[in-house]
Amino acid sequence: MDAYFYIILAVGLLSTIICAVAGIMKKAPNDATILSVAAVELALLVYLVGSIVRVSSGEQIAGEPWEFWGYLITALILPVGAVYWSILERTRWSNFVLAAVGVTALVMAARMNQIWY
Amino acid sequence: MTPQTPVNKTDNATANARSTDTRNTGPGRLLIAVYAVFAISATARAGYQILTKFSEAPLAYLLSAFAALVYVVATISLAKPGRTWFKVSVAAVLVELVGVVVVGALSIVDSVSFPHETVWSLFGRGYAFIPLLLPILGLVWLYRRRPAPRA
Questions:
Q1: Which residues in chain B have their CB less than 8 angstroms from residue A104's CB?
Q2: Tens of pLDDT along B22-54?
């Protein structure tokens, strides 16, 4: 597991906790929950840029490269989709949808790390 | 004007039917979101398995593809309003429940025939048992949002 994974682990868990607590407190998606999901997206973008730099500087992905990029691109789409889906209906349940993003992102980041090394 | 009252009544009836026939609201949105994640990951995984190593375990990988299809149908049908989509949802979620229980049991009893991982192996242990929990929550939600009997 590298630093990229630990960044996504920390940001993802924090985002999930913020969104789940907001959902439990019966709040609709607000700045805090949407920005926490945006932070997950940012962490994934850092992973994307870092990975592009590493590959272009000659580092080899141990597993299937296209599987790695597939995971990364899918992970990048999830926060955007979840935010869109949550602002269509602004109820507490949308915060639970947002809460799912952080956990999913960290599971996917763990898998991406396995593929890379 | 006399015809106005019946017109309004029909409008209300359609509005009511629409709201009770909709499952993509409240908790249903979370359910659909989780189903969508499973649909994407199961489809990607099955596609990967079939494209790269199908001959290793055709049965397991066909099962993966079937599971992916069930998740896709469940996601779409839960998001769509109306009686027909309700029935499709119930069928998809029931197939999912039977699938996870049967494949889960077979993967423990007969681990030789089911050595290759699918979403449903070991009751979905590789996915934090969410595949086992999801159809149960799905059925509860569908029951609570069942369409009213036809008048």
A1: 37
A2: 788 888 889 999 999 999 988 988 888 888 888
B144 touches chain A (CB under 8 A): no
* CB-based contact, A69 to chain B, within 8 Å: no
Backbone dihedral angles phi then psi of residue A63, each to the nearest 5 degrees: -85, -160
A100–B37 CB contact, under 8 Å: yes
Q: Phi then psi for A27, rounded to 5 degrees?
A: -100, 150
Domain spans in chain A, listed from the N-terminal domain onward:
3-116
- Map tokens 């993509």 to a residue: B24
Contact B119, B67 (CB under 8 A): yes
What is the model's pTM?
0.83
Question: Which two structure tokens, joined as six digits, stand for B98?
Answer: 């039977």
Q: What is the pLDDT of residue A40?
A: 93
Of A74, A89, A104, the CB nearest to B29: A89
Supply φ then ψ for residue B5, to 5 degrees: -60, -50
Asked if the C-beta of B50 comes within 8 angstroms of chain A's C-beta atoms, the answer is: no
Distance CA A78, CA B101 (A): 29
Q: Is A36 exposed, middle or buried (0-12, 13-18, 19+ CB in 10 A)?
A: buried
For residues B109-120, one letter each, b for 16 or more C-beta atoms within 10 angstroms of the residue's C-beta and e for the rest, the string is eeeeebebbbbb
Is residue A55's pLDDT more than 50?
yes
